[in-house]
Design goal:
BirA Bifunctional Protein, domain 2; 4-stranded antiparallel sheet; 9-stranded mixed sheet; globular; alpha+beta; Threonyl-tRNA Synthetase, Chain A, domain 2; 16 strands; binds serine
Length: 602
């Protein structure tokens, strides 16, 4: 069964059971300074799990593309990813354990046809604060799961919150006991290290977790105790790729349709076979996984860089290229793009923004090739000179050559050297120092940007929103604001785009803005919570300065149809006609993948 078919069946099944499909969040959530990427479907639902009313009701379903950078070191096994799609369903204080467990079981066994004999489930074993989940145990038995396939685990395994078990949850965080479903690969023998003690939560690969029903019921209070939430929720998440592997009965998730073409292309480019005795499977998986994450991030307009999202993307791209290099094929942007292009078939947004993605992959390959040469020379010299490679050295290599830490570590380990945890921490603390100073610089810059509120700057401010919307309409959704600065003379707008605009494109953008000015569209704002703003499709940036409530400015509001919607403090004109007219006066490329345009009032 194709992954596409699984997606369809999942959504249909839960819709049939009264769920409304909600739009997944983008991968990059500027609104949440505590996390770089969307890593679970529940993330956008936190306020609603805590009791706020959701406009689509109490039963929700979606498929959420997610990124978990913390699993990066595990990707080389056969079942972990940096990017994956999560099938999710939620009860916001509506149904609870009985319905949830029966539905998941029905979905896996009836809709997907998984053999019930190969399924195992786990249940929370309880502690002083939260009792053993005998209710789920009884439900599973009633459903027909044999007792030998129901396993009890403590909070380390059977409790879910974004931070982990209760003792790790920060104040305010929500979580609860959960019940997981595992698929058993009969073809895989028990890992001899675990022998007959192998069990669903053992790491040997015989069992694969394919779904997790979290009974989201608790909130951590200031005194460290757990308090019951006003409502009992369900938060289910299951990895599409793993579910597809179970349907295929393949313990190696990289055999599913999304990856098979990519693996073939890597084989062709390198002349090495996957699953042969070459010992190179790890590199195949890293390339396939990291490139998939990279093209999806690029499709949202993230570009490789040295900070935050850009740095995560750079690590992914460079790690995949380094492993391509390890397969003996050098570093070639062309080959990498050719492999990554395979993902166009599976991700419409990647397909739509392919030109931008390809340009950035190629540009990063060129930069990386040069960095690798310089970095390798320095590292080799240091290693052969018997120098100690410490955290500071690794950070300097990263800062001056853009040489990611993972590569330093991989190269050291190839030379039989170990980069200790202490050194790794030293690297991280240097990195953090660097990050803090660049972050305060950018916040300061933003504050200065809109301080002056004369009539001209107000007009230019609204013109900036029109420009942003026009660029997206004409050039594509990868356009994202990277910076903005307004004086009484002109506006300046930085955005993600890899090449300069052609004359016709500039004309097109300018004409569209002036058309919207001529239409004299109303400009209005509403105050709402940030998650609601995101739900309404508002664009949002510089999240760290937002409070609980944000202002959402809409241009051209007639029901569902609008030209621009952005989270913004204002001020703005009340009708676009007041702007008079706008002219783009200049464009320049600043840094890689960022274009800057200047515009003035006519
Ligand atoms: N939030 C849970 C998870 O990420 C279930 O959706 O596993």
């Amino acid at each position: 069964m194709s992954t596409d078919e699984i997606r369809k069946r999942y959504l249909e099944f839960f819709k049939k059971n009264g769920h409304i499909e909600i739009t997944p969040s983008p991968l990059v959530i500027d609104s949440d300074p505590t996390t770089l990427f969307t890593s679970a479907g529940m993330q956008q639902l936190v306020p609603f799990l805590k009791g706020e009313k959701h406009k689509d009701g109490k039963r929700l379903v979606n498929i959420q593309p997610s990124i978990r950078m913390q699993d990066l070191d595990e990707v080389a096994d056969n079942r972990h990813f940096s990017f994956f799609e999560m099938l999710g369903n939620w009860s916001l204080g509506d149904y609870f354990k009985k319905e949830q467990l029966s539905w998941v079981w029905e979905f896996f066994t009836q809709e997907l046809g998984l053999n019930p004999e190969k399924l195992h489930v786990s249940v929370y074993a309880g502690n002083d604060e939260v009792p053993k989940d005998t209710e789920s145990f009884e439900i599973w038995k009633k459903i027909g799961v044999s007792e030998s396939h129901i396993h009890f685990y403590d909070a380390q395994k059977n409790w879910w919150s974004r931070a982990g078990e209760p003792s790790k949850m920060p104040t305010g965080e929500i979580g609860g006991p959960d019940s997981e479903i595992f698929y058993e690969f009969k073809s895989v023998s028990h890992d001899p290290r675990f022998g007959k003690f192998c069990h669903p939560n053992c790491d040997c690969g015989k069992f694969l977790e394919i779904g997790n029903s979290v009974f989201m019921q608790y909130q951590k209070m200031e005194d460290g105790k757990l308090m019951e939430l006003p409502q009992k929720n369900v938060d289910f998440g299951g990895g599409l790729e793993r579910i597809a592997a179970a349907v295929l009965d393949s313990p190696d998730v990289f055999h599913i349709d999304i990856f098979s073409g990519v693996i073939k292309k890597i084989e062709k480019e390198t002349g090495i076979e996957y699953n042969s005795d070459s010992g190179k499977d790890k590199s195949f998986r890293i390339i396939a996984d990291h490139l998939r994450a990279s093209v999806n991030l690029l499709s949202e307009g993230v570009i490789p860089g040295n900070k935050l999202h850009g740095y995560a993307l750079r690590r992914l791209i460079r790690r995949s290229m380094f492993h391509f290099h390890l397969l003996g094929s050098g570093i070639s942007g062309g080959a990498i793009s050719h492999i990554a292009e395979e993902y166009r078939r599976f991700y419409p947004n990647v397909n739509k923004n392919w030109q931008f993605i390809e340009d950035n992959l190629n540009a990063e390959a060129t930069r990386f090739e040069a960095a690798l040469k310089r970095g390798l020379a320095r590292l080799t010299k240091a290693v052969s000179g018997g120098d100690e490679i410490d955290g500071e050295f690794a950070f300097d290599l990263y800062q001056t050559e853009g040489f990611p830490l993972e590569l330093t570590m991989e190269i050291l380990s190839q030379n039989g050297m170990v980069f200790s945890l202490v050194e790794r921490n030293a690297f991280e603390s240097e990195f953090e120092k660097h990050r803090q100073s660049s972050r305060s610089a950018s916040v300061g810059m933003f504050k200065g940007g809109l301080a002056e509120a004369s009539v001209a700057t107000t007009k230019l401010h609204t013109a900036t929103h029109l420009l942003h919307a026009a660029l997206r309409q004409i050039l594509g959704d990868h356009i994202g604001q990277k910076g903005s600065h307004i004086t009484s003379e002109r506006l300046r707008f930085d955005f993600s785009h890899s090449q300069k605009l052609a004359d016709e494109e500039i004309k097109g953008v300018e004409n569209l803005i002036n058309l919207k000015i001529k239409e004299d569209l109303p400009v209005s704002f509403k105050v709402m919570s940030l998650p609601n703003a995101i739900k309404e499709g508002a664009m949002h940036f510089f999240a760290e300065k937002y409070g609980d409530e944000v202002k959402v400015y809409t241009i051209g509001n007639s029901g569902e149809v609008w030209f621009s919607k952005e989270v913004c403090g204002g001020p703005h004109v009340t009708h676009t006609g007041e702007i008079g007219g706008v002219k783009i006066i200049k464009q320049e490329k600043i840094g890689s993948g960022i274009l800057r345009v200047y515009a003035a009032l006519k």
